[in-house]
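Milestone M4 deliverable, item 7.
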Amino acid sequence: MVNRRDVLKYGAVSIAAAVAPTSGSAAARPVVRIGVLADFSGLYVDFMGPGGVAAANLAVADFKPEEKGFSVEIVYADHLNKPDVGANIVRRWFDVDGVDMMIAGPNSAVGLATSFVAREKDKVCLGTAVTTSDFTGKQCTPNAINWTYDAYMLSKAVATETVRKGGKKWYFLATDNAFGISLQHETTTFIEQAGGTVVGSSKCPIGTVDYASYLLTAQASGADVLGLALGGDDLTRCVNQANEFGLTAKMSVAALVLFLSDIHSAGLKTMQNLVFTNSFYWDLNERTRAFTKRLLPGMPGGSYPGMTHAGCYGVTMHYLKAVAALGVEAAKKSGAATVAKMKSMPTDDDAFGPGRIREDGRAVLPAYLLKVKKPGESKAPWDYCEVISTMKAEETVKPLAEVGCPLVKT
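Output delivered:
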């Protein structure tokens, strides 16, 4: 878990490392500025926070922009999970601080708000923890890309596999925001397509402490499956309480959004056998293990990276490739032109491997159906998951004809 001391300690190091010139000639190079906007103090701090900044810095170090004739500075700020706060920070970054690209997450409402500011200012907004499909759907902009996941990807494999195994009647507990609403909507579609039904749902305020009434209602509904469209501490708190009430002995629990940090926080005994979807797992292959090894020194508290940290690395790396290909002056002049360049170039990095970006701004990358190991199956620290199946890249994204993005020519 990340604490305030980790944030303050890491923050001082990250800014110093990112902006300190190494020589007189370095000061004369054009500078590209990147802002990481995330939760640094609330329930989503483990998703990105200092680890996301570390991943962006690693991408800069691996890319070596000084060899291409420019320098990179990275700044960060806490959006406090408030769209107005996030929008105001990004507006200041663009208007006053000379930030050229910002990384958005976690929080779908904040992601949408900041993408609109980026479009207004013709800068770049790259989502690495934005769940709502609207980000690259009806609210898409030519200045935004969503990289790591969305509600469609997260829900598809879990819903289909759970119904196939007999979990046909679902009850949802969903966070009462854009994140929860989008995730429940997408999952419902796959449940019904697979032959299941949704018998009820409850919307839970972000930061709910006591889930007792919600869990009792779910249990009384007659559902086979409890679908949790919750994130961060909300998710782990709810799963813990479901175990305490004995609900997990009577119903299957489908965690629609589960991160490595959630498993670490709650423990394998609590999370064992949960099935979920991620687009990155540190122990997937030689490239992901090498990426993780390079990133670990920058991760707070010795934690291992999850898919949002990997997303910060992947979007930063691909953005810098586009800047180098387009030219720094042109990239700084127009965020829309830079995003168009990113879409025109194939993606490839150690965290995600090869892929591409569609015209709606959605990155097309493989995803993995993972199962949390039982305590006795884990052989080493952070050895928490086994890969059940792989979704091909084209299967992880909603068909273009269905996204509703005005950038898509049909």
